[in-house]
């Protein structure tokens, strides 16, 4: 029987907002794996990432500052096979970008996730998509399906969105329901965040999480996809 995975992607704005609300939003949807963008990366970043995991009822898999503030969390059903933190090439006056990658196993099914947060400017965004694909090829065996999740800082229909989804299905476009707007949490009017799925994986559902605490937790809304692993 196929294995069902609940994958969440969430930009948490460095936990600068209501941390208790943030934990309630994440735990309310009972994800198996969470790809976090804008995880704490400076003072006490390790303890803050651990706090986020604890408030969410999850554990830290990898990432954080070494992965340019991309963090991966999971529940105790998930086994960790390997992890990697990769930083992309940096442009002057721009934030450091990168990816947190993990090869995981759930109920006998092996898969990988790559969480990322792309740049505000188009040229580095497109360059970093190429670097993301190279990082995945370097750290994930070819026979393992890969799920990419994150904040693209661009919209569906853009060159960035097309580059990320060139070899992957946009989960929300495949099976999304209601609105796909993820930004801002207080006034959702644009889609910046998404989950992109290996062709070997089936998308059962995808939705933006609208929770009573969402506007207090971060300036983005999270996206949850329910997937069938081969």
UniProtKB/TrEMBL annotation:
<dbReference type="Pfam" id="PF03372">
    <property type="entry name" value="Exo_endo_phos"/>
</dbReference>
<keyword id="KW-0255">Endonuclease</keyword>
<dbReference type="InterPro" id="IPR036691">
    <property type="entry name" value="Endo/exonu/phosph_ase_sf"/>
</dbReference>
<dbReference type="InterPro" id="IPR005135">
    <property type="entry name" value="Endo/exonuclease/phosphatase"/>
</dbReference>
<keyword id="KW-0234">DNA repair</keyword>
<dbReference type="InterPro" id="IPR051547">
    <property type="entry name" value="TDP2-like"/>
</dbReference>
<dbReference type="GO" id="GO:0004519">
    <property type="term" value="F:endonuclease activity"/>
</dbReference>
<protein>
    <submittedName>
        <fullName>Endonuclease/exonuclease/phosphatase family protein</fullName>
    </submittedName>
</protein>
<keyword id="KW-0460">Magnesium</keyword>
<keyword id="KW-0378">Hydrolase</keyword>
<feature type="domain" description="Endonuclease/exonuclease/phosphatase">
    <location>
        <begin position="8"/>
        <end position="220"/>
    </location>
</feature>
<keyword id="KW-0540">Nuclease</keyword>
<keyword id="KW-0227">DNA damage</keyword>
<keyword id="KW-0479">Metal-binding</keyword>
